[in-house]
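Long-time lurker. I teach an intro course on protein structure, and each term I like to show students one example going from raw sequence to a predicted 3D structure in token notation. This year I'd like something fresh instead of my usual example. Would anyone be willing to generate the tokens for the chain below so I can use it in lecture? Attribution to the forum is fine with me.
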Amino acid sequence: MRTVLAVFLLAAALCLPAFGQTLGEIVGTATDSTGAVVPSAAITVTNTSTNAVRKTVSNEAGIYSLPGLVPGPYSVRIEKEGFRAMTRTLTVQVQQTARVDFALQVGQVSETVEVSASSQMLTTENATIGTVIEERRIMDLPLNGRNFFSLVALSPNVTYGFTPAAQASGRLGGSRAGLTIALSGSRSTWQNYTLDGITNTDIDFNTYILQPSVDALQEFKVQTGVYPAEFGREAGQVNVSTKPGTNQYHGTMSEFLRNDKLDARDYDFSSASRSATNPSPGKTPYRQNQYGYTLAGPIQIPKVFNGKNRLFFMSNWEGYNSRRTTAPIASVLTPEMRNGDFSSILPGFKLADPLSRAGTYPNITQSFFPNNQIPASSLSAGSKLLASRWMPKPNQVTAAGALPFRNYQYALSLPVDKNTITERIDFNESSSSQWFGRYSWNDESAFAANPSMGLDDGNVLYTRASQWVVSNVRTISPTKVNEARFGYNSLFNNITQQLANKEDVNALLGTPIKVTDPNSWGIPSISFQTQNLTSFGNPTSSPFQIDNKYYQFVDNFSWIIGKHSLRMGGEYRYNKFPQVGNEFPRGQFLFSSQFTNLRVRGSSLSGSLGFRNPHGQP
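-- Reply from a regular --
Happy to contribute to a lecture. Here you go:
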């Protein structure tokens, strides 16, 4: 648990960067045909999707500023007695400061000059380096799994999709653990994520907390350097904005399907040796369904309430189900070896009796088991139990005189289930006050560690994340604007064993250290260090659970004084990130050939079943 209080004071001359992490800003100067400034000109900015209106006037220096604008299409109109009115249209992007200057022409206010939106120009209002991925690219570009983070790679100076950090994979698991983004050559965990101006960064592993559906996104911006001080924290920024409702009803329903019956067969590299008794392998079963809906528009109750131009909603839900089956191959003991008979590997490998070992290296004496057959009295009861329960018998041919190798093939089923909900409300209280609120929720269940050999020694993952945000932009005067935001995040991530609360394997093995917590029950980690046999058992670092809570309040204040624009604000965060977990709660057993070979410290032969030590433990 930790309290984080961050208070920042930002003051910059001339024009400021965008107002808030995901909101935009329109700034400009009003002049006449001679270049003289025009004070007290009325500026009206209208969101053409919602008809939300913001008003201000140019100050004595002819400068105006309208911060805190939701990304979207806008028209800007300027009026001043003795001059023709002028209107310009543009699209404000996330965290953008758009400059719209007006050179007014003498005439009647009733005369209007309309200027079409021009092509995007270089940003001159600030030095921020970044790339906006707008809604069209989010919706139109193909995305495997509809993960919008894949589009981050469209930005320059970005590396995406490399090997994830081992700790995040073992302690976090799921989709979050697999995300790897490096901006400007930084490490993959040096990114800060925000969603609608609220932190979306996991404090434990620095990955994202919540991932909305691509159908719920307006756009996002990837910043790689020289960004305003209000961001900070990390080397790179990924700022995401969800989609607001508009005056028009829009809805979608979708289903994205992947099915092995629609796929071609994998190329068979051994096709020349295939026969009726040795056919080519078939396709592995694969089912993936991703489906959902999005509905947005004004809130209306017939004959009771009409929310056009004032109250809007956006609702989105997406489900994901994947069922993939693979056919891995493992190496297991033959039935004879399980009973101590290793005569099949003679003369290449001779087994020495570890209990007969005397002396120190290199002066070691040791006797061999006759005909490579270990007496039943020397076999550990615990090792025999482990082999009978969690090491299947071979179903492939084991070559004569060779160690077991790739002699067991099995079907490994990998289920993944996800759900995503996003609900957003926008309210235009007046031309001087705009509100929005959003609730989002994710959950995911999958394997954090796959079962070995198709058994019950895997680690299962359940993740649940939610986020609330409320924001208000209030125009106090033509030169003063305040934005306040409150956000709450929760992230629950639980990794545990398949046999947790079901079976105490340590009690069956009779290990001296008892596992008293049923949530820690499982199979000890059984590691064959020479890799002749396939290891099994649960990872040593489970169970592991995080239950984080994030409270955040942000306030930004903008004030224009003459040709200068001041910005100041503060942020308060209260983070709770308790972690509950164990290291080696079930123990770990390491098997090697170090003590079954004469005068060597180790070799390529595994200790297989294991021998009873003087204390009678496996």
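Some talking points for your students: Residues 1-19, 600-618 have pLDDT under 50 and may be disordered. Residues 381-390 form the longest helix (10 residues).
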